[in-house]
Structures are given as structure tokens and as C-alpha cells.
Amino acid sequence: MVWDVDDTLFDYTTADREGMRAHLVAEGLMDGYGTAEQALARWRECTHLHWARFAAGEATFEGQRRDRVRTFLGEPLSDAEAEAWFRRYVDHYEAAWALFPDVLPVLDSLAASHRHGVLSNSSLTVQDHKLRVLGVRDRFESVLCAAELGVSKPQADAFLAACDALELAPHEVAYVGDHPEIDGRGAADAGLLSVWIDRGGASTGADAPAGPHRIATLAELPAILGGDTRFGAPSTFG
Fold it and tell me: Tens digits of per-residue pLDDT, 94-131?
């Protein structure tokens, strides 16, 4: 088993929203963005913009974080000023960290039957720390992240690196992630058993990518792992 982290195991959306709300209040910036939701939408635009630059090799991981702050504030901050602002935001963000309630039960149910790893489009420094704070780092044999790999999801090489870390072939590995294209289609195209967790149920059937299994909660995962013959379960036909 290989897992995505943000919005799969870890409730990133809630932590990001509550962390930004607390940060804007502490910085005296709430009035400049109307509502916390508008501010968060702008912050996510900046995140997507500069993450794309990082993924394309146009910025370092640390550089894209500082550029997110500059774009969000609309100010030409020095590296030190931008980094300090980002660290203050992270303090509020980390205070809101939590696993989804279905995570520990499914990890417990699969502990004896499956080995586990992580593949994330982040950095090892960030995700290793996050998993330790959340109390689940010891559940995973390997943690691979785009910043260190030099390749990110949905590229097949990222998924194949995660398989290599477990010393398993792609057809022996299941991947669980929340993004229908980056995680769902990417893992399926790389030859893994792809499971897309659609917690919000926002995508319609017409929007769903071909290939991945679609679940609304991790409680559905053991049945998929046990029932997919391509993943090594015995066939129930004939």
C-alpha cells in the first residue's frame, strides 16, 4: 500500500482554512481580504501557481514557499521576511492538524496484511514531520516526496519509485489518494491498483477518471483490496 498524505490521511483542507484564519487575525490582515474564505481562496491560487513552477523545475521548494507569500501579500519581501511570515503561518496551521477519523481504523485493520509507504507531492522535511506530529510515522516503511525525488505525481516515475522503495512490482501495489487526476489516473496509468478517495463527493460520474476505484471513506478500502483479482486476491468466478 502506498498513500498520499494531504486530504487523504491528513485533513489538510480544514487545517489550511483554520490556520490561515488564525494567522490573518494575528497579523492584522483579515480586513484586507474580506472574509477568511476569500483569503484562503487567494492563498490557494498562490500555492497552485508557485507549486507549478516548482514542479517544472523553475523554483526550489523553499523558493516557491517564499514566492507564495510575496504574491499573496503583493509585497517585494526579502527572503528572510517572506520566510518569517511563512513560518508564522505554519505555527497556526500546525495547531489545527488532525487525521481524518477513518484513518487509524483502516491502518489498524490492514496492519497485519499489508506493508505501507507514502508518496507525496511535497518535501520529506514537511511530510516526515507531519506524520510524526500526527503519531503515524511508524506505520510507514518509506516516505517519498517530490522535492527529493525530482519527479512528481502524476508522472509514472514517481509511482514507480514508491513501488521500488517497497521492492514490489506496480501490480502488487495499491495507491490511495484524493485527487482524481494526479492520484487516481496517475496511479492507474503507472500500473498500480488505484483507489481515489472522493471524501466530498464533489465529482459527478461524468467527471470521474477511468481507471481508479472510487470510495467515499477509507472504511471501503479493505473490501477493494480483497476483491480486486488483479491485485492478487483469488478469483471468485468459475
Answer: 999 999 999 999 999 999 999 999 999 999 999 999 99
* Full-model pTM: 0.83
Give the type of residue at 83: E
Residue ranges for the chain with pLDDT beneath 70: 202-211, 227-238
